[in-house]
Design a protein that fits this description.
Layout (H helix, E strand, L loop, with lengths): L2 E3 L18 E3 H5 L2 H13 L36 E3 L24 H20 L5 H26 L27 H18 L19 H21 L9 H4 L10 H18 L12 H13 L8 E5 L14 H5 L14 E3 L1 H4 L58 H6 E2 L4 E2 L2 E2 L5 E3 L5 E3 L4 E3 L5 E3 L30 E2 L20 E5 H15 L4 H14 L10 H11 L5 H8 L3 H4 L7 E8 L6 E8 L1 H6 L16 H4 L8
């Protein structure tokens, strides 16, 4: 008799109803009652490979709730041009390989999890045949099984390409001859189509949000019909992009390429775009969702609304289709997350030993618009020079090699003045120099220009200005009073101070005090929301030339109006992709958008260095003011830049000598 060890999906609220907590229970007992099946289902939900607040692509994997080594507390945004850890890190896919990895924190490899899904599928059929559950209950559970299966295969195919499709328990396949157990890899195209088919099965019997009963839990945290459509929309867009932009890469010839285990023929792009459009339209036309706070009175109100969407998702459910919620880990072991502990700026740290670990790149900050609203939608880089040249960057960390006397700086009385007219979503998503956070003015400064014109860079040196006041390189005398740049030359402290000029604000719990205990954050993670669906539709429509172009343009501009913009942009691919980058920043989309569109290797080519904006106090002025230095990020300079290798679009498949599967190109 098998024993099942359970990790409960606490976010289901009433989903577990009156079920008593179980640590260890026999399968026969669980299968004898409907409540037992719900416990098993909750365990499957807890194992969804969701790239949420507890996902660590750099070695840790999924469901990492507790203490992390500095190098492992990395999320997908930090592997792109959106950010990096404050200690510095590389780009592209991390070290975690879900094919075979297992940890003591609840993360198991994808094939073990797939077997659990298949076992549950078989179990509910036994329960139906045995009269334990009704046909109506069975149908819903069957659809949930298919949602979970689609989610698992989606996580696999975007990492490995085509994989073996195993949608049943294989126990009965073994009769002494192991040959039937060796399931070959399907083509990448067929694997994507399998995912879409699973989504259709999920859609068949999953309830609408309004059909959820109290015992079901919250439809934002347990799969409903629209969550399955949302997964279908996202997956189809991904597959369409692989088909359309596969020409951008040339993989080494091997069995995987010859058998089309990786890549999709360009002729199939139209099909997948069409599926994306149809799935997105179903959600939009369904009428159960709307943009949260779609008509702000001012850009300032838009910033408050947008921040609140992520800070308090439970209060903004009109936009949220599916996500994950948590309990306070200081009260319930390993049920919260570490987002606030690790990412809150040092001046406002929670009391945890680590903080300020998310350095936001100038690359993404420059991409935001201002409120010119002239119908072009062009990005508005931060103004640092009087000559308008904003594409020149310092390429050295050596202060003596930087000729600040030749740079026509714009001088700002307050550093925050450089950002005051930017898109509301910037200040709602990013902590900028001089901005307020939890009532404190956040000091982010990387040096000074002395009265004699010499540069102090990444140093806490001080000097008295012409006004008789002493100024410090980091903006204050005590490390408790500043949040940036204390560390590039001091590896013992670098991790707690941002290195780029900016820190993340999106998802941080600014409106509440979070305990400095492990995993003490409980802010939910939003996996699918309506704004993404709008953008999926718009991208698929413009890429394929099908769908309703006027409606797509309307969705694009509805998102912009929610951000306080008054103009209307035409439906162009450039506008859609720029809007996608801004609206979904730091939500882990950028990583996979670069992946699916085959743009990673072109962005990160020839040792590209991500960019920083270093505020300096200029003591050459009678009244010292702030100037900004555009500079290649310190850690990327030290690393010699970042280059993405084409073979990294597909991960290594372990154990090919045993499982007989052709490995991916270059592996």
């Amino acid at each position: 008799m098998s024993m099942l060890f359970l990790t409960l999906f606490y976010g289901c609220d009433g989903f577990l109803g009156n079920i008593k907590p179980l640590n260890k229970v026999t399968e026969d007992i669980l299968l004898s009652k409907e409540d037992g099946l719900k416990v098993l289902l909750a365990n499957l939900y807890s194992g969804i490979p969701m790239e949420d607040h507890c996902y660590r692509p750099e070695g840790g994997g999924f469901n990492r709730h507790a203490w992390e080594d500095p190098d492992q507390f990395i999320n997908p945004s930090m592997l792109t041009d959106e950010g990096m850890t404050s200690a510095g890190n590389g780009i592209g896919m991390g070290a975690y390989n879900m094919w075979s990895s297992a940890t003591s924190y609840g993360t198991i490899n994808c094939w073990e999890r797939n077997r659990q899904i298949n076992t549950f599928d078989r179990s509910i059929k036994k329960a139906l045949d045995g009269g334990v559950i009704s046909e109506t209950t069975y149908n819903r559970l069957w659809s949930e099984v298919n949602f979970l299966r689609a989610y698992m295969y989606f996580a696999m195919v975007k990492r490995f390409g085509g994989v073996p499709i195993i949608d049943r328990v294989q126990d009965d396949d073994y009769t002494g001859d192991p040959e039937p157990l060796f399931i070959p890899r399907s083509t990448e195209s067929d694997t994507w189509k399998f995912i879409l088919d699973c989504c259709d099965k999920a859609i068949q019997y999953l309830p609408l949000p309004k059909e959820f009963a109290a015992k079901d839990g919250d439809p934002a945290w347990r799969a409903n019909k629209w969550a399955a459509y949302a997964l279908k929309s996202r997956a189809a867009l991904y597959a369409a992009s692989i088909a359309k932009y596969g020409y951008r890469v040339s993989f080494p010839n091997c069995t995987a390429t010859e058998q089309k285990l990786v890549g999709i023929d360009a002729s199939q792009a139209g099909y997948f775009y069409g599926v994306c459009i149809a799935a997105s339209k179903a959600i939009i036309d369904g009428g159960d969702y709307s943009l949260y706070a779609p008509n702000p009175a001012t850009p300032q109100a838009a910033a408050v609304n947008y921040q609140n969407l992520f800070m308090n998702p439970r209060n903004c459910k009109e936009e949220i289709i599916f996500g994950r919620t948590y309990l306070d880990g200081s009260l319930y072991a390993r049920q919260g997350h570490q987002y606030d502990n690790y990412y809150t700026v040092y001046q406002c740290n929670t009391g945890f030993v680590r903080s300020g670990r998310f350095s936001v790149m100038l690359d993404i900050v420059d991409a935001y618009e201002d409120y010119t609203d002239n119908g072009t939608g062009k990005s508005s880089p931060i103004v640092t020079r009087t000559d308008g040249i904003e594409n020149q960057y310092i390429i050295t960390n050596t202060a003596s090699d930087i000729k600040v006397g030749t740079i026509p700086f714009v001088h700002y009385k307050n550093p925050s003045d450089a950002f005051k007219d930017k898109d509301a979503r910037l200040l709602a998503s990013v902590v900028v120099p001089g901005s307020k956070y939890k009532g404190k003015t956040i000091i982010i400064q990387g040096g000074m220009i002395r009265k004699d014109g010499s540069l102090v860079l990444y140093s806490g040196d001080s000097e008295v200005g012409s006004d008789g006041i002493r100024y410090y390189g980091f903006g204050a005398a005590s490390a408790n009073d500043y949040s940036g740049f204390d560390g590039p030359m001091n590896t013992a402290n670098v991790s707690n101070f941002i290195n780029s000029g900016f820190s993340v604000r999106k998802y941080l719990s600014e409106d509440k005090d979070v305990s400095g205990n492990q995993a003490s954050s409980s802010t939910p993670y939003i996996d699918f929301r309506l704004a993404e669906i709008y953008l999926n539709y718009a991208e698929a429509a413009v890429e394929s030339g099908t769908g309703d172009a006027a409606a797509a343009a309307g969705y694009l501009n509805a998102i912009r109006k929610r951000a306080g913009h008054k103009d209307n942009l035409p439906l162009t691919l450039e506008n859609v992709l720029k809007e996608r980058r801004i609206e979904l920043a730091f939500e882990h989309h950028r990583f996979w958008d670069l992946w699916r569109r085959r743009e990673y290797h072109t962005l990160f080519s020839n040792n590209y260095r991500r960019k920083s904006l270093v505020p300096l106090i200029d003591l050459r002025e009678q009244e010292p003011k702030t100037v900004f230095l555009r500079i290649d990020n310190y850690h990327d300079i030290r690393a010699g830049g970042q280059t993405f290798q084409i073979i990294n679009y597909y991960q290594n498949i372990p154990g090919t000598d045993v499982n007989r599967l052709p490995n991916n190109p270059g592996r």
